[in-house]
Design a protein that fits this description.
By secondary structure, the protein is of the alpha/beta class. Helices cover 33% and strands 17% of the residues. A six-stranded mixed β-sheet has the order 11-16-15-14-12-13, with helices on both faces. Strands 19-27-26-21-22 form a five-stranded mixed β-sheet. It is globular. It binds beta-D-glucopyranose.
Length: 760
């Protein structure tokens, strides 16, 4: 950037507290583009992969040489401020125009200080915590060279077989929107006007646009087919919320939509994203997304590359489709210079907004990184947030544990470091997190004894264990027989006053390309758990999982179950905090736990159908139900226990009738009726009783997390605005239709505490 521009932006920032006006950016980009060759413009659209982090099958080659030639707009998966500085130097000093490049990474739930997997984080229902986790991730990543994260992932999903439910915020649209906004604020900055103006604010990338969370059969990358009315009402809103919050980039998903791969879908990437939602950032494909359109069966490499560019893709991740094909396609008249210019402009604008033209090394602050990355302050916050993400599923007087006597810690997840952070923690140091064994021992030091036995392998099948523990997350297969492992565990159990069973999934049993058709605790672990329960000692199941798990036997027979997901780098201490009652659990499920896989998709905001099963019933002929299991979940959306109890007053409404444009205030008073302080997530659901199209039986439309001392009461109110009463009708108009609305407020999605009003 020339000196004059630097002065103008500095003055503007000082005077108005805002980034340089649009026109300055336009002038700058116009000027730069006037000097660029077609090849250099196409080079800006190219995003190869580099470094040691593996997030896909294909690799890029000759990256430095191509940077010199101006064939690279961004790079991802390179880690370390010094490494990144060296590569940036090639771009700035050795390419003809010296255009800096974007450095991206999947900073999904933390950089090196790792927070709970997103599904776990969402169970905190604490938007400040969510934002804070993204803020810390941005602070660490930005000091270490990264200016662009491929997060937030906001795909609504209702299929627990899909491994990537671990990366999202669960099944709910409304909660998904609030989390999407909080994440964008955390990465880019809280105030839309000043986002990306400081060197610790990084560009967010909302993904995977769109509908990626609804693959057929819960199999990753599989076909998606969905009505438009469902897209608009249930699946689109979180992407839009992220964009409205300022997200500067969008990632196209691998799946098809209406039969056209998202990567080449003009309706999606231009009509919806640009024209309806006014998105003004840039669109990147997912890993080899353009190339994969060939396998989708929609054309050869040249035609799919053209299709993607014309549909609205600006940057090509790893495929090389633009580099290889776009110039020829231009010469043949298959696309216009305007198509290339538009995409190039959007990439340069992102670099400008990030301030890379002013200082290309803005994000390479090795000294700061050495001090801040994984610092104690960040870790303390991560520990606190982790403990808030855990969900207490059952507790028959066993928890909290006392710090005395002998605690038998048993299970294949009890003594692992690398499995603590959770999937998609690509920058994590896998050898540093405490094991649960160490965490419990530290917590009870000098007061109680912790004995340990592995008890079983992760699964009996060796090959399945290898597939489930990739990327350095091995659990160390024990070659003793199942019987030997079990006997050792039973010996420990007999010497213990209480048993903590650390069981469930390995962290790579969820995440990308990690889908399951059985979602129970694996075979050998179940046998172990049954044997432990049979000893008659109190057993606490500490469940590690990246998805809802089927837990019927466990729910019936194990006295206490604490779901800890994968809580991040500080999991071990956080689990100890909750087990011993230093922290009162307050997480609530954001995905329904089904009773079996056959019930999937099972979610609370379902439609009633014309033949609903009446509440509390099981089988009735000619009703919508199963012969072999009832329709209820094992644990519903919004569910989670505490070490205290809460009581709700009846719901009161400010009016029984409301005119269009008006709003209704709904109120409850919540009292902590137990003996310890606790936090409660007060949830408000709405039912639009009659519509021109069918409406869900209820939908979350508000929530508030409150802290209450024993005996304390708080009144919580929700303003039900016309927007909250609205939905997309069959013409895809966003309308509030007159008629009755029911309001339910309570502790989970089954809340019966209700009132109703009429919209005139
Ligand atoms: C995933 C994305 C990720 C990208 C880059 C893809 O395989 O679907 O979520 O951002 O790889 O690592």
């Amino acid at each position: 950037m020339n000196k004059k521009l630097v002065i103008i932006s500095a003055v503007c920032l000082a005077l108005f507290g805002c980034a340089t006006p649009q026109s300055e950016m336009d002038k700058f980009v116009d000027d730069l583009m006037s000097k660029m060759t077609v090849e250099e413009k196409i080079g800006q659209l190219n995003l190869p992969v580099a470094g040691d982090i593996v997030t896909g099958q294909a690799k890029s080659s000759n990256v430095s040489e191509r940077i010199r030639k101006g064939e690279v707009g961004g790079l991802f998966n390179l880690k370390g401020a010094d490494k990144i500085r060296d590569v940036q130097r090639i771009a700035v000093e050795e390419s003809r125009l010296g255009i800096p490049i974007l450095f991206g990474m999947d900073v999904i739930h933390g950089y090196e200080t790792i927070f709970p997997i997103p599904l776990g984080l969402s169970c905190s229902w604490n938007m400040e915590a969510v934002e804070k986790s993204a803020r810390i991730a941005a602070e660490e990543a930005s000091a270490d060279g990264i200016c662009w994260t491929f997060s937030p992932m906001v795909d609504v999903s209702r299929d627990a077989r899909w491994g990537r439910v671990s990366e999202g915020s669960g099944e709910d649209t409304y909660l998904g929107c609030r989390i999407a906004e909080a994440m964008v604020r955390g990465y880019q900055g809280p105030d839309k006007e000043t986002q990306l103006t400081s060197n610790d604010q990084i560009l967010a990338c909302v993904k995977h646009f769109a509908l990626y969370g609804a693959p057929e059969a819960g199999r990753d990358y599989s076909t998606v087919d969905m009505s438009r009315i469902r897209m608009y009402n249930e699946y689109f809103p979180p992407y839009k919320a992220a964009i409205d919050a300022g997200a500067g980039s969008v990632m196209a998903s691998f799946n098809e939509i209406d039969g056209v791969p998202a990567t080449g879908n003009h309706w999606l990437l231009t009509d919806v994203l640009r024209d309806q939602w006014n998105f003004d950032g840039f669109v990147v494909t997912d890993y080899t997304g353009i190339f994969e359109m060939i396998a989708h069966g929609v054309g050869d490499f040249e035609s799919v590359s053209v299709q993607a560019l014309k549909a609205g893709v600006d940057m090509d991740m790893v495929s090389e489709g633009f580099i290889v094909n776009v110039k020829n396609a231009l010469d043949k008249g298959m696309l216009s210079m305007k198509d290339i210019d538009l995409a190039c402009r959007r990439i340069l604008e992102a670099k400008y907004r990030l301030g890379l033209f002013e200082d290309p090394y803005k994000f390479c602050r090795a000294e700061e990184a050495a001090k801040e990355v994984y610092c104690q302050e960040h870790r303390d916050i991560a520990r606190e947030i982790a403990s808030e993400s855990f969900v207490l599923l059952k507790n028959e007087g066993v928890l909290p544990l006392k710090k005395k006597g002998t605690i038998g810690l048993i299970g294949p997840l009890a003594d692992t470091r690398s499995n603590m952070p959770g999937t998609w923690s690509v920058a994590a140091r896998l050898d540093v997190p405490k094991t649960l064994r160490e965490g419990l021992a530290d917590a009870v030091k000098g007061k109680a004894e912790v004995l340990y036995a592995k008890g079983s392998n992760l699964v009996s099948d060796f090959d399945l264990e290898m597939r489930s523990t990739m990327f350095g997350r091995e659990l160390g297969r024990d070659n003793r027989t199942d019987a030997q492992l079990l006997n050792e565990a039973l010996a420990v159990a007999r010497r213990s006053d209480v048993i903590v069973a650390a069981l469930g999934e390995a962290s790579e049993m969820s995440g990308e390309s990690s889908c399951r058709t059985e979602i129970s605790i694996p075979d050998v672990q179940q046998k172990l758990l049954k044997a432990l329960v049979a000893t008659g000692k109190p057993v606490v199941l500490v469940l590690f999982n990246g998805r809802p798990i089927t837990l019927n036997w466990e729910a019936e027979n194990v006295p206490a179950i604490l779901d800890v997901w994968f809580g991040g780098s500080e999991t071990a201490d956080a689990v100890a905090d909750v087990l011993f009652g230093d922290v009162n659990p307050s997480g609530k499920l954001t995905m329904t736990f089904p009773k079996n896989v056959g019930q999937i998709p099972l979610y609370y905001a379902a439609k009633n159908t014309g033949r609903p099963l009446l509440e509390g019933r099981w089988f009735e002929k000619f009703r919508s139900n199963y012969l072999d299991v009832d329709n209820d979940p094992l644990y519903p959306f919004g569910y989670g226990l505490s070490y205290t109890t809460f009581e709700y007053s009846p719901v009161t409404l400010s009016a029984a009738e409301v005119a269009k444009g008006g709003s209704v205030k709904a109120e409850v008073t919540v009292t902590n009726t137990g003996k310890v302080a606790g936090k409660e997530v007060v949830q408000m659901y709405l039912q639009d009783v009659v519509g021109t199209t069918t409406r869900p039986v209820r939908e979350l439309k508000g929530f508030e997390k409150i802290a209450l001392e024993p005996g304390e009461s708080k009144t919580v109110s929700f303003e039900i605005t016309e927007e909250l009463m609205s939905h997309y009708n069959s013409d895809l108009e966003f309308v509030a239709e007159p008629g009755e609305f029911k309001v339910f407020i309570g502790t989970d999605s089954r809340a019966k505490n209700e009132a109703s009003f009429i919209l005139k």
